[in-house]
Design brief:
A: 2 helices; B: Jelly Rolls; Arc Repressor Mutant, subunit A; 2 domains; four-stranded antiparallel sheet; 23% strand
C-alpha cells in the first residue's frame, strides 16, 4: 500500500489548489473535498502542503535513526 | 465579464472600488496562461507587467550562485507578484514559476502607473499590500540572518526519531517550523543542507538519520 498525504476533511474547503500543483496527478476534488486518486506512488514533494491555504493536506515525515 | 469584475473586486489592490473604477481597471487587464514549471519571471530582467493569480499557484524565489532555491512567497488566487519591480522600475528582484497550470491577470507597468495617479484608493490599497509584504519578508530575513535554525531542526529530528523500524511520531515541515520558531521555508532549507552534508537522507516520507553523532554536534552549536 502506498503512503499518501494526510487530508483533514474538516479543514479542506475544496479549493483545488493542491490538485493543480500535484505533478503526479494524484489528487482530485471529489464531492467538494480533496481526495487521493492517483495510482502512482506519491514522491512526497509536499507542494500540496505548501500551497494549501487552510492546512488541510500534509506530508508528515517519519524520522528514523539508522543504527551503525 | 461579470465574474471577472467580481474577481477583480476581491483582489486586495482593487478592493473597495466602485463599479466604474473596477470597469476602468478591467479594460487594462489581459489574461495569460502557463503550464506547470513554466518560468513566469526571470530574476534580473526588466519588468513589463504586474500579475495577479486568477487560478493556480505561483512560486516566487531567489536562486543562489550554486543553484539553491529560497522560496520567498507562494502566490495564491487573488494575490499579486512582481509588485516591487513594476512599482520602482528596477529589475525583477526574484524569479517566479508556475507550480501547476495557472491563469494570470496581467497589467502593463505604464497602465498600473496611470491607475495609481488617477485612483488614490488603489494607491492606498497598494501601500497596504506592500506593507504586508515587507512585514512577511522582515520575518524571513530575521529567521535567515539571526537564528541558528539548523541546530534546532537537528534537535527536533533527534528528539522525535524512532528506531530503524520507525515508531516515532510523524512530523510535517510546518510542525517542525512551529517547534523551531521559524518559517516552513527555513526548515526545508535546513533539511536540504543536512542532506547535502550527508547527515540525513530524505527518502520519500522518511527522514533517515544516517550520522547521529554529526547531527548531535550540529545540535550543540549555540543559537
Amino acid at each position: 500500500m502506498f503512503e499518501s498525504p494526510v487530508i483533514d476533511t474538516h479543514k479542506c474547503d475544496g479549493c483545488g489548489l493542491c490538485v493543480s500543483v500535484c505533478h503526479l496527478d494524484g489528487l482530485a476534488v471529489v464531492a467538494g473535498l480533496v481526495a487521493v486518486v492517483g495510482e502512482v506512488e506519491c514522491d512526497w514533494c509536499a507542494d500540496c502542503e505548501i500551497v494549501c491555504p487552510t492546512g488541510a493536506i500534509s506530508c508528515p515525515f517519519e524520522i528514523i535513526i539508522l543504527e551503525r | 465579464m461579470a465574474a471577472k469584475l467580481e474577481f477583480l473586486g476581491r483582489i486586495p489592490y482593487f478592493s473597495d472600488l466602485g463599479p466604474s473604477e473596477l470597469e476602468s481597471v478591467r479594460k487594462l487587464i489581459f489574461e495569460k496562461t502557463a503550464d506547470r514549471a513554466e518560468a513566469l519571471l526571470l530574476e534580473g530582467e526588466s519588468p513589463e507587467h504586474l500579475y495577479f493569480v486568477a487560478s493556480g499557484v505561483v512560486k516566487v524565489f531567489k536562486t543562489s550562485a550554486e543553484g539553491k532555491e529560497q522560496i520567498l512567497s507562494i502566490v495564491r488566487p487573488g494575490e499579486s507578484f512582481n509588485d516591487v519591480a513594476v512599482l520602482d522600475g528596477g529589475p525583477n528582484p526574484a524569479g517566479a514559476r508556475a507550480m501547476g497550470p495557472v491563469l494570470l491577470f496581467g497589467i502593463k507597468k505604464n497602465d498600473m502607473a496611470m491607475l495609481l495617479r488617477h485612483h488614490p484608493s488603489i494607491a492606498l490599497n497598494v501601500v497596504r499590500v506592500l506593507a504586508a509584504m515587507a512585514r512577511r519578508l522582515i520575518a524571513l530575513v530575521e529567521d535567515l540572518s539571526f537564528r541558528h535554525v539548523i541546530g534546532r531542526v537537528a534537535r527536533i529530528l533527534l528528539e522525535h526519531a524512532g528506531g530503524e523500524m520507525g515508531g516515532g511520531p510523524r512530523l510535517t515541515q510546518q510542525e517542525m517550523a512551529a517547534m523551531a520558531g521559524t518559517a516552513r521555508e527555513v526548515v526545508g532549507r535546513s533539511l536540504k543542507a543536512l542532506e547535502e552534508e550527508g547527515v540525513i537522507k530524505l527518502d520519500r516520507h522518511r527522514i533517515v538519520i544516517v550520522d547521529k553523532e554529526a547531527l548531535q554536534s550540529i545540535m550543540e552549536v549555540p543559537s
